[in-house]
Amino acid sequence: MSAVIGNSGEFAFTPANEKWARGQIKKYPRGREQSAVMPLLTKAQEQNSGWLSQAGIEYVAEFLGMPMIRVLEVATFYSMYNLRPVGKTVIEVCTTTPCWLRGSDQITAACREELGIGFGETTADGEFTLLEVECAGACVNAPVCAIRNKYYEDLSPEKMKAIIRSFKAGQTPKAGPQIDRQTSAPVGGLTTLVEG
Question: What's the rounded Cα separation, in Å, for the pair 133 and 114?
């Protein structure tokens, strides 16, 4: 498929990504190929340094034979799609009620202190972008943030700053709960089904 040229430049899947996209489309029944819109948007975003350009959205629409507005509706509805350039490391802080009740305001403040930016902003060196997201879906381990497709859970301001410092140093800190907890088990250990 040929490249699409939009207001934000030109876009076309690489040959490997085009082959992958065609494989995704085959997963859906005949006549329902447009159901592949989300995986194709995700792949287009990955290929385009973490954001979806207008040309990328138009390309996916053409690839799937969809009206561009329907693809844009998907891209603007879900917070996982970035419609403008982002830093190499995107920090998505959940601020929905469970995370807020468990201190997401303090996590946000720690990010702002460590990075010097607010929500929707990117550091001057292009390394970090800070985003606010609605419900990360890990409420039992609130407050949480997502970084590079991994969840960092049970955060405190100190832990959040340490995670950011690790990324700044070129390291990838351990994802998951940041307290002594097994995945989403109760804090303090199991209280039921402890025998047998």
Answer: 19
